[in-house]
Amino acid sequence: xxxxxxxxxxxxxxxxxxxxxxxxxxxxxSDQARPLRQIGRLSTVDLEEEIIAEEDSASGRPKEIAxxxxxxxxxxxxxxxxxxxxxxxxxxxxxxxxxxxxxxxISRWVICGLIGFLTGLIAxxxxxxxxxxxxxxxxxxxxxxxxxxxxxxxxxxxxxxxVLNSSFVMxxxxxxxxxxxxxxxxxxxxxxCYLNGVKIPRVVRLKTLVIKVCGVICSVVGGLAVGxxxxxxxxxxxxxxxxxxxxxxxxxxxxxxxxxxxxxxEKRDFVSAGAAAGVSAAFGAPVGGVLFSLxxxxxxxxxxxxxxxxxxxxxxxxxxNFFLSVYHNKTGDLSNPGLINFGSFESEAMGYNLYExxxxxxxxxxxxxxxxxxxxxxxxxxxxxxxxxxxxxxQVMEAVLVAAVTAAVAFIMIYFxxxxxxxxxxxxxxxxxxxxxxxxxxxxxxxxxxxxxxxxVRSLFHNPRGTxxxxxxxxxxxxxxFLACWTYGLSVSAGVFIPSLLIGAAWGRLCGILLxxxxxxxxxxxxxxxxxxxxxxxxxxxxxxxxxxxxxIMMEATGNVTYGLPIMLVLMTAKIxxxxxxxxxxxxxxxxxxxxxxxxxxPATSHWLTAREVMSSPVICLNRIEKVGTIVDILSNTxxxxxxxxxxxxxxxxxxxxxxxxxxxxxxxxxxxxxxxxVELARSRLTQRKLQLKDFRDAYPRFPPxxxxxxxxxxxxxxxxxxxxxxxxxxxxxxxxxLPRVFKLFRALGLRHLVVxxxxxxxxxxxxxxxxxxxxxxxxxxxxxxxxxx
Amino acid sequence: xxxxxxxxxxxxxxxxxxxxxxxxxxxxxSDQARPLRQIGRLSTVDLEEEIIAEEDSASGRPKEIAxxxxxxxxxxxxxxxxxxxxxxxxxxxxxxxxxxxxxxxISRWVICGLIGFLTGLIAxxxxxxxxxxxxxxxxxxxxxxxxxxxxxxxxxxxxxxxVLNSSFVMxxxxxxxxxxxxxxxxxxxxxxCYLNGVKIPRVVRLKTLVIKVCGVICSVVGGLAVGxxxxxxxxxxxxxxxxxxxxxxxxxxxxxxxxxxxxxxEKRDFVSAGAAAGVSAAFGAPVGGVLFSLxxxxxxxxxxxxxxxxxxxxxxxxxxNFFLSVYHNKTGDLSNPGLINFGSFESEAMGYNLYExxxxxxxxxxxxxxxxxxxxxxxxxxxxxxxxxxxxxxQVMEAVLVAAVTAAVAFIMIYFxxxxxxxxxxxxxxxxxxxxxxxxxxxxxxxxxxxxxxxxVRSLFHNPRGTxxxxxxxxxxxxxxFLACWTYGLSVSAGVFIPSLLIGAAWGRLCGILLxxxxxxxxxxxxxxxxxxxxxxxxxxxxxxxxxxxxxIMMEATGNVTYGLPIMLVLMTAKIxxxxxxxxxxxxxxxxxxxxxxxxxxPATSHWLTAREVMSSPVICLNRIEKVGTIVDILSNTxxxxxxxxxxxxxxxxxxxxxxxxxxxxxxxxxxxxxxxxVELARSRLTQRKLQLKDFRDAYPRFPPxxxxxxxxxxxxxxxxxxxxxxxxxxxxxxxxxLPRVFKLFRALGLRHLVVxxxxxxxxxxxxxxxxxxxxxxxxxxxxxxxxxx
Lengths: 790, 790
Description:
2 copies of one chain form a homodimer.
Chain A: H1 42-58, E1 71-73, E2 77-78, H2 87-95, H3 98-151, H4 154-179, H5 188-196, E3 198-199, H6 206-221, H7 230-245, E4 247-248, E5 253-254, H8 264-283, H9 286-297, H10 303-327, H11 347-350, H12 357-388, H13 392-416, E6 420-422, E7 441-443, H14 444-449, H15 453-462, H16 470-487, H17 497-518, H18 522-525, H19 528-544, H20 548-558, H21 564-581, H22 585-592, H23 611-614, E8 622-623, E9 625-627, H24 628-636, E10 644-648, E11 660-665, H25 666-674, H26 679-684, H27 693-699, H28 713-716, E12 719-721, E13 732-734, H29 739-749, E14 753-757, E15 763-768, H30 769-773, E16 775-778, E17 781-784, E18 786-788
Parallel strand pairs in A: 1-18, 8-10, 13-14
Antiparallel strand pairs in A: 2-3, 4-5, 6-7, 9-12, 10-11, 14-15, 16-17
Helix pairs in contact in A: 3-4, 3-6, 3-7, 3-8, 3-10, 4-6, 4-13, 5-22, 6-7, 7-8, 8-9, 8-10, 9-10, 9-20, 12-16, 12-19, 12-21, 12-22, 13-16, 15-17, 16-17, 17-19, 19-21, 20-21
């Protein structure tokens, strides 16, 4: 077993695979990585690859491969956005009256409303709990500091602070590392993958949600350089996946409602709505939420769907807003639409001039550079973590260490800071620390560190000139940059949005201050708050590289359309500059997991590839009426592990291509085997009830593995008639279709299998997600990723 | 010739069809309309239809059919969003380096920037000219009224007003009716159709733009109940279509740039950007613009495209904003992002309570009802106009009549109004009319009528309580409702957005006033401005029935996310209630033109239809190497007028289906014939240069008709080899594919022709837009529209 290697990955604790005992890291040194060949003649390269793969699989063990981001994992399955229009389905649809469709439509709306409502409630819960706990924590520490400032012995305060932080973080890290590793991080990469059509195991389960919510509270209260916004997106998605199915597999409750929606097509639509509701609750940006979902998930734009997604977003932001207003004793004041909002930028005081736009764009470029640096550091850190920090206890220890270091660094920074500011009569600082400042003054560094990051961002945006001096901001940027970079990827639930905004706001404000000090005229227009906003946008754009949705989110969070153009230009510049060096943070993490992620279009220079070169072949086909034994053998073959099988008129013995007549999925075959839908049995037991769509829906989404289905030796000789269950009209393309054309069809319809046929309609190959995802545009033109079983 | 009937339609002046001399209206009474059969067995109905159609066409004249909205016109052609991936295209793409693709991408961005800039400039031009001219007009009339109020003889003022208005409107109507009828109306239905994939003749020409811009100025200055916002969308689209092609066919100038973009796929993308830029300039709503384009146009969501569209929108709104700020001597104040903006609704003064939401929804329902009434009246008016008012001179006369009546009604309303309001010291009214009010007071009815509608809307939103009394508002709503209804559909360029908002704002404010007067508590929260906003949203939603984009447009125009939820709920209610009675205004006009418009999804209850029943068959196929004579004959056959021809291995004599090997378009064949690409000539003249993609692009989009191409008797005997030019991998579906599945493929990929093949890959039929568009969900279930040659 020494050769079975395993990555510490999103799905590392897949119980499905049973005994995974030891967890040797996959990476035995990336220098072993075979150099990637430039694609010369793909067809030959392809064949070679396949032969190697087959040899390995034949010897019964997955090939040990060096880990790097030039791999595509075969372990991820695809979602099936294409309806399986088999006879059962068509019969059901034909039986349904217009009224029934209306009812379905209404229940979709109800579900979306529920999703929005619950997501808003969760956001509200997180916000209130964090505020309460953080309030207690800061009050205790503040009292302690005040007590020891005069008396000396501030080291005790430091220890208190570090211990408090570490214990919260430890709690969160233990939950995540030991119970549900998929709940780590912001969850945005995972949701991106899910919406892209990749099935990430355990990502939309109830347990994940619970751990995520508790985890994020712990890490924010624990004073890590994290935000609570990213996880909201994941939470919304889980809520959606749960509510829309009308049952919980974890709780073993089936409410017998919404059974029609128990398939990938419908579920993914609801998950889009959930993700949008999450964004909306996090940033008070309902339109931004819709655009986020569309940017990540949409293939075919569906107006009613979009409209429903918008409804969910809207309900979510208003639920949050309403309950928070009740909590703050300002019932009905709906002006705090999100977990974070940037406060209002009044256009008169904060207007910008045309000649500032180049300045903004320069800041965008700087944001792109810093973002690329952040991503680069985080990339190596992640590699390091995958290689060495893969045991849960190590992960918890690292998290605790980070928490302690964060507290210590903050304390030292505050301690040595000499930036004292007079306390305004109506001071907005929640916990002003006097420390060594004169009476009536407070330590300015402390407002940045000794606060939840959301508040710090807001004070950087809105505090009047002179609230911070340049040195404070510079030091703060420097330390927070590295702290945030170290924190992202820890085994705790937390987002990177707020830290990015905070770093950017700090150096943006610094830019504003420097500008004002260099020229005398600039001091009239160089409002530091304005530059903090631009810096925040630049830094966030440089790190996550989202485009349209981020612009709209920022616009909605500032509540001001006037800043639309500069924010957009800044985000564009940051993206262009950043992309030159390094990908976006989420994309890096997706790549490190070797997820077969489909981008929007095929690589521009791939017109010379055709379906013939891209497809997998030969394909395992089934007969219309097939022997049970053959089916069981095919499904049990772990080396191939295919999920879709073309059904042909007659499989020929010499592997000649046969005429296509349908497509059937592994999951369907398993249900058929489980219910023993054999021709012989049907004849003998006439009373046996016909298999219905309901049987497939009940098994969805956790279809049993083939190993759990017992088929006796007698039964193996029976026959199965697939006609009724297969999809008789799968989409096909001819052999000579160019890759961009194949890609477009595949992507636009959200397919999982695309059959490649010759001009006689005979099955020549099958195109799946991995076949398309492995071509990507590298620095040196078109590159092909390796496929790996891990 | 008496039997050749013609509709007065969007494309009534198609010079292509040559001598159209007399313009007898198509409608000889809609009672002649054959009752629509419920679809029983479609296949038989189909056959019957075809036989009738064939009989008619055989006798050489189009069938005279009664006009109603249950028809689909065959005269509209489709855009081809699918790339023709023939050998020429693939060779070009394969030759292109990665750098070349980058350059293309950059030029796309440059074009979008230009589109935004020019659209913004046009909006700015319209705004300034309207403001200047209207200012002069109102000043002249006001002076006149002031002079005659005391002296008596106000009838002279009335005449002056009516004459001034009528002359402006006459000018506009003459331009539109005589020179470019397609420039009439808002242009939104036409752009909707274009983005949907229907080629509307002359809709994106330069001449149309010029007439549109001048026309809209005339009609707004002429005091009609119209707005200048709708036409901006059309203007943006024309700008986009012009700029992106790098040439103007009207001006006969070819700049030899952007030649790559000379095809439907690229052009439609740019037109989307143009429409978005138009919305953005009109309402200061860049995000709303993007969503409008997506809602109307998107099939496959493309992230880079959306991002570019957003860029164009953003540039457009900021160009407008910047130039307007310069014009208003407030350079750099970018707080007026659109032609209309609703002013800022401060959330404190204008907050709403949860218990107001049912009230809002009731107003939404009222808006839906009034909208349905509006649409119903306008529907019959349009039918009337199609039947009787189809000559240009009659159209001009009607427009002049409406202008005079509008002025007269307004005058009478003002004259008899007794609603005097004290003039505030910093009065916002531009032209306060004292009339019979005491000194220091002004006539409140006059502020509503004696003003550009944009200003009236704004004052209804923002004027303090008590500015209008209930009677004034009620009378105003009543008269303006009928005036606006009469005006829409006149042969002038004008939009319906602003009149709808104005009607809604008036009755909304009335609701607010009534509410405040009924209960004593209500007077504290029932701010009339807030109810005016909700009423405006309800009325607009009830008339146009847009959903997502309209919500976002309204949100951006109010500059306030707080009103998002109520606006959305109101628009939803208005749409649901309105849809119960009547379709949206734009949809009605599209239907009256019998445009084969594809909705988002196939009708819900159409699963029992398959490609076999839906497709057109038999199909005219061509051989791979075909005789020139045959091709010319097929193309010249006016009775069929097909645009796409499957290429097969060997056309059999007895109409047996033959094996598919490609698809070729009429336009391609015409270019081939024009350049005489015959096998024999290629052999004899070896020096003849090979046909290139450029030749096709140069001919785009106005391919010559087949009649203009001379083919000698000798040449008719030559052969043409289509292999290189046909698309060798057209999308196909099997015969048994269900209609929703066919529809999804067709819609998602923006196809024009979809070949239906049997299990031997033989051509059995062809599905085009009309085959899919004719199924729609009526009151009594699935209905089928008739196809008509007009």
